[in-house]
Amino acid sequence: MTMTMRALLGATALCGLSAGAFAESITVATVNNGDMIRMQGLMSDFNAKHPDIQVNWVTLEENALRQQVTTDIATGGGQFDVLTIGTYEVPIWAKQNWLSPLNDLPAEYNVDDLLPSVRGALSVDGTLYSLPFYGESAMVMYRTDLAEKAGITIPDSPTWDDIKAAAAAMTDKGNEVYGICLRGKPGWGENMAFIGAMNNSYGGRWFDMDWKPQFDSQEWKDTVADYLDLMTNYGPPGASSNGFNENLTLFQQGKCGMWIDATVAAGFVTDPTNSTVADHVGYAQFPNKAGVDNHGNWFWAWTLAIPASSQKQDAAKTFIQWATSQEYTNLVASKEGWRAAPPGTRTSLYENAEYLAAAPFAKMTLDSMNAVDFSKPSVQEIPYTGAQFVAIPEFQGIGTAVGQEMSAALAGQETGDEALAKAQALTDEEMKAAGYIQ
Amino acid sequence: MATQASRSAARLMISPSVILLFLWMAVPLGMVIYYSFRRYRLLNPDRAGWAGWSNYSNFVFSPDFGGALVNTLILVLGVLLLTVILGILIALLIDQPIWGQGPVRILVISPFFIMPPVSALVWKNMFFNPSNGLFGELFKYLGMPPYDFLGQAPLASIVTIVAWEWLPFATLILLTALQSLDGEQLEAAEMDGAPPLKRFFYIVLPHMSRAITVVVLIQTIFLLGIFGEILVTTSGGPGTASTTLPFLIFKKALLDFDVGTAAAGGIVAVILANIVAIFLMKAIGKNLD
Amino acid sequence: MARAVTPARKTVNTAAAWIVALIIFFPILWTILTSFKPEPVAVASPPVFLNFDWSFDNYRTVIQQRGYGQFFWNSVVIAFGSTILGMIIAIPAAWAMAFVHGPRTKDLLMWMLSTKMMPAAGVLVPIYLIAVYFKMLDTQILLTVVLMLMNLPIIIWMLYTYFREIPVDILEAARMDGATLFNEIVYVLTPMAVPGIASTLLLNVILAWNESFWTLNLTAFNAAPLTKFIAGFSSPQGLFYAKLSAASVMAFLPILILGWFSQKQLVRGLTFGAVK
């Protein structure tokens, strides 16, 4: 028997073992975002360390994932052992006892290294219920070459007026360059994440202290009017179906002058293999309206949680620790460079000189995340906590319905005021049905 | 051969199907009726209780309901019209003596084999997308600004996709019917000097009426449930511009997680579907025997 | 009603028919072409048709990232399983209806068809809860049974129309000639029934293969068929047209080839036996 043959046989036997008698398989539901797809490509490391655990992936588009995961957990379906959910779901679901608490993490996981704000967002009464895979705030990403060509500079902390002026200067529709790309695809986690944050930075709020919806307020009217103005004059065609991923593609193709979105995007727009504009990206803080001390309060982390209904708690726990560990970060760095490391979860990453050198957006990301105040995302008095979302169970439905109206306005099917009037009516109805308003 | 014995044997042979279908209809329907009177929110399980008729009134009086009805009608009628008219034209064309009738037929029936999520994704991204789709390129080539099909004409775009999926079905049935048409009758009419249009309306079309009936009946059954194409392309939007009745119910159940209202919507839809069914059976049932 | 025409006329007709056929087929052709392109070429402007570096890279990437075998196998099991199970239940029923014509047969058929009009979205939550209760969520058995029930009315109806075409006289003639029941079934009935059964089988396998409401909502991984596989390619990050195309081709090619090879039976099947 030759060496190769023997090696082959040995490998087959190993495969047989790992997939067979001793293997426990866990099902992981996740979003089809770049970082998660990358993780699926790095599974050989996990398989080598834990040959007894086989990981099955369910990869879905964000809205589809939410729908499926939420139905499963709310009915005790038990189809999944690990869920990819966000800072909105974790506290709400933890309070329903739908998630397993993650108390006894081993010392090498170094739980104290997690960014305090992220850890806080994933804890209820001091107990951690989910581990962060990557975290984000939002910022302006812009094309330095286009800005130079147009003869403008974007300040580090721009106002919306600055943004509008820059968008006008950079737009060149004949060459398919659009001054600004923003989310328009309906969904509470899609367009309403952006519009909600924008409204925060205009000094607006979702509800007043009596839970009365505020879409009839001047702040909302200004927000929506300016959003529509920016997008219809300087945005790409078909914007009403563009979400995070679509805008990322447009930006990578060089079709956007500016893009205001999640900080995690910076790692992808500067990726030379996929981005045609990798060397020409500048960053600025999320804009605010002149005179309003609020930069959107966008805060989000995609996290890995274990449903209480899972029968494979230990295997699931092993997996989520690996996926959110420092060693996973190092693995990504060794394979794809430090720039690609999952951002926004661990303090150590932002103390790593190599990362800071490779990722010019690191400081902006950390500063933006640290500036967020969950307890008070708006400058006005509010009865809720949250960020670019409102942390109540009903928000998912309300946010999506309001998002539909905004996207209809963006597609030109109704005016901004009409959309706001409808949003007001439907939110009011929903809040009454849910018992917030008597 | 319908003796007493064979009748009871027949009953025995039919009953498994009937029982299964009855359970498949009655059990979920019973549950839906129960939920339709309950307050039942998946995300807020603590807030449960009897809701009276409020789920029904919420659903029927919601501003989306009327629009969804109209959209459902437009979708079903639009696809029926397109497939029947284009189907007749294509069937007439393929029925002529041509070279390569076999391959042509294979090409024409192919869309029928494509699963709805695939056709929706392909059309949405590779054709309708204004920045990177082929139609966008076509507009650019013609010197026009790209048109945002799914944003500006969502329902028409969905009708196009669905009609593309169902055109093979209509064409094939109509073609089969056409091929059984008696050529001599047509030739006689031609000899008598009847112009082509007249021949079509007085001989060909009446001959195809039964086939058209089948197309309408079967397609209506499937079109009333069209769902995947909407979810993938527009999610019922922008706004509610492409929200149909099934999609509205889905939205209530799995986007708002309001099972009570969704159940009420389901009952309303069942009632409406039955009205359509009775209508359809009455109108064309006699044409089928 | 084919008639003799002049060669010139035939040429014009041929050209027109081919143009129409190619337009209808074009989205599929374009998907197949795109699946062999590198990602940037897939969105190139102006579009590139044939002149690019053909490669199987997209297929390799897709299989590596998402797998394929299990989805494919689930599709096969669910589509064939549900259809065969449906046939086993439907054949006796259709047979009885066709040969023992009762006064209510037609009403019964219409009632069966009308169960298909129930909006699936309306009964999703009940079915889901039943599945949770029996711990059947994400199993092949659940999907097989649900799709069987979905298609049962169509199967019965198609078989019924085929069986009715079998002339009863022949049976009686065979009996007069002294044929045993066994001979009657094997030599007389089966040959006449087989084409109809084959058509029904084929068409319903295709309907089940392409079903995309229940397959998407009742599965996660273990029983997830190709519809679920393709759903993961909705709006991913980065350029994805080529990968989407490769995944699409992998999802529809098996059934497309099956359809092409069985074209004749299928045409019969597609007409639901109702048009001769």
Automatic annotation (TrEMBL), chain A:
Assigned keywords, A-Z: Signal
Residues of the signal peptide: 1-23
Family membership: Belongs to the bacterial solute-binding protein 1 family.
Keyword Signal: yes
Cellular component annotations (GO), alphabetically ordered: periplasmic space
Coiled coil (residue ranges): none
Localization terms from the record: Periplasm
The protein, known as: Sorbitol/mannitol transport system substrate-binding protein
A Pfam family matched in the record: SBP_bac_1
InterPro entries the record matches: Bact_solute-bd_prot1 (IPR050490), SBP (IPR006059)
From TrEMBL, chain B:
Protein name: Sorbitol ABC transporter membrane protein /mannitol ABC transporter membrane protein
Bilayer topology annotation: Multi-pass membrane protein
Segments passing through the bilayer: 12-37, 68-94, 106-123, 155-178, 199-227, 259-281
Keyword Transmembrane annotated: yes
InterPro entries in UniProt: MetI-like, MetI-like_sf
Gene Ontology terms: cellular component: plasma membrane
Main subcellular localisation: membrane
Ranges for domain ABC transmembrane type-1: 69-280
GO biological process, one term: transmembrane transport
CDD domains from the UniProt entry: TM_PBP2
Highest rank taxon of the organism: Bacteria
Keyword set, alphabetical order: Cell membrane, Membrane, Transmembrane, Transmembrane helix, Transport
Localization of this protein: Cell membrane
PANTHER family: BLR7065 PROTEIN, INTEGRAL MEMBRANE SUGAR TRANSPORT PROTEIN
UniProt similarity note: Belongs to the binding-protein-dependent transport system permease family.
Species assigned in the record: Albidovulum denitrificans
UniProtKB/TrEMBL annotation, chain C:
Gene Ontology cellular component list: plasma membrane
Name of the protein in its database record: Sorbitol/mannitol transport system permease protein
Family statement drawn from the similarity comment of this UniProt entry: Belongs to the binding-protein-dependent transport system permease family.
Pfam families tied to this protein: BPD_transp_1 (PF00528)
Residue span, ABC transmembrane type-1 domain: 72-262
Superkingdom per UniProt: Bacteria
Organism: Albidovulum denitrificans
Transmembrane segments: 12-33, 71-96, 108-134, 140-163, 184-209, 240-261
GO biological process: transmembrane transport
Primary localization class, coarse: membrane
Subcellular location field: Cell membrane
InterPro entries linked to this entry: BP-dep_ABC_trans_perm (IPR050901), MetI-like (IPR000515), MetI-like_sf (IPR035906)
UniProt key word Transmembrane: yes
Magnesium listed as a keyword: no
SUPFAM superfamilies: MetI-like
Topology of this chain in the membrane: Multi-pass membrane protein
Keyword tags: Cell membrane, Membrane, Transmembrane, Transmembrane helix, Transport
Coiled coil feature spans: none
PROSITE patterns the UniProt entry points to: ABC_TM1
